[in-house]
């Protein structure tokens, strides 16, 4: 595999609105990120991905951009951002911006001009169709946040526009070369500023199956999931290749795609040495539909990595701003403690690919346990989840309980810095509730505690970067070990060294026979150090949720 500058990096996702507030308005800001750069450097972070901070009405928390060339005043100014880039560089940290170009905001000037003159130049930046009340819609696709993808064009009773996400997120028409050129210009403007690259939002959606047509109805609403259309839409690669050629490739930028539904044969095109993107997220575990078990978690991530073996790098996560907290999702509630949290961390962190940490994950932040009312939350996706649950026959209390398990707000509650009011996130009134668990789960309590989840993450990062082992963790061959042994999750990484990652993914002890003897324990989540006799045996007994990272003879 051709070596790239970003291969050995560790990345960290910041959701700026909830990270750290420096001016008391209850909203995290760029200055807050600058203040915490030393914290991130100390943790061992090389790349920061910032969720969107561009001008935005925040209908979808900044994923609805009204000006791509400026920062929303709530987050700061372009000067603040320039300072962040410069301060990051001093510390060897690259800044990755979020690239949201499937859609913009309905408050972007392109859309305003399109509303003024739908048949003019900017009308063609969007998907606008003629429509009279009573007509059938051009297609029956369901938007990701619920309801039809079609909405009346403001100021025009006889026109509608397409939005696959929120109605305040009109889709940009990538079939139009003029639009594409505008997008590339904007991307190059940012890359010229010295950012390290982009995380690329919802990018698969830029190719629509045209002309618009209906797909099979898959809900009581008479609509059809966008996925049905996407499976049928071919040709996204042409757009992506042009995009990469016009922008990223010229700058040797780091790019990570939010890609779903790609076909096996497309993998080299997406993330091969000369792919459209540097890497893409592995969402295989996030996509598990049934209840999570150690077995389906293991099968998902092992399959994902075997699938890209020899082709390219995946980016590994246990959570992000769109998912509940990973520890709450992947560990049974009754078993959730520091030991099981560390086990999960060790499993995903040492897989081939690039580890991403989502803010707060490094201190073991968990989901909310309850809210009294849906209005305690904020996400625009909540209403549809809640109403669908009611529609399916759940009571209000049950619908709320369901929402709490799945809402994206679980990841968006403020970072828990300490046990003071508002978890030290703001001196003002936080824009979103603080998770009451901050009294016990916060950075201040962990930063000097050698047994903490935080210190464990630090150790994981320094192990990955340890010059003796780095090439093995970055380029070593991945092979599952005893995948059929129940509730065991073990794999080897073999390069210059031979390393095994072994996890006992259950609350009972478990015996494992190893392929050879252990030479050295590199990391463990228990206080138990293997005594000399266990080094002499290939049979080991793992305690509940034990994780071992060992070098093999
Ligand atoms: C991506 C983002 C998500 C957003 C959506 C629309 O999935 O991660 O937060 O709602 O795209 O931009
Ligand atoms: Ca602020």
Automatic annotation (TrEMBL):
Keyword terms: Glycosidase, Hydrolase
Does this UniProt record's set of keywords contain Ion transport? no
Name the GO terms of the biological process aspect. Answer: oligosaccharide catabolic process
Q: Which stretch is the leader sequence?
A: none
Gene3D superfamilies named in the record: Glycosidases, Golgi alpha-mannosidase II, Oligo-1,6-glucosidase, Domain 2
Task: Tell me the ranges covered by the Glycosyl hydrolase family 13 catalytic domain, including all copies.
Answer: 13-412
Q: Where are the transmembrane segments?
A: none
The reply to whether Iron-sulfur figures as a keyword in the UniProt entry is no
**Superkingdom per UniProt:** Bacteria
Q: Name one GO molecular function term.
A: alpha-amylase activity
- What PANTHER family does this protein's entry cite? ALPHA-AMYLASE FAMILY MEMBER (PTHR10357), NEUTRAL AND BASIC AMINO ACID TRANSPORT PROTEIN RBAT (PTHR10357:SF179)
Family membership: Belongs to the glycosyl hydrolase 13 family.
Question: What name does this protein carry?
Answer: Oligo-1,6-glucosidase
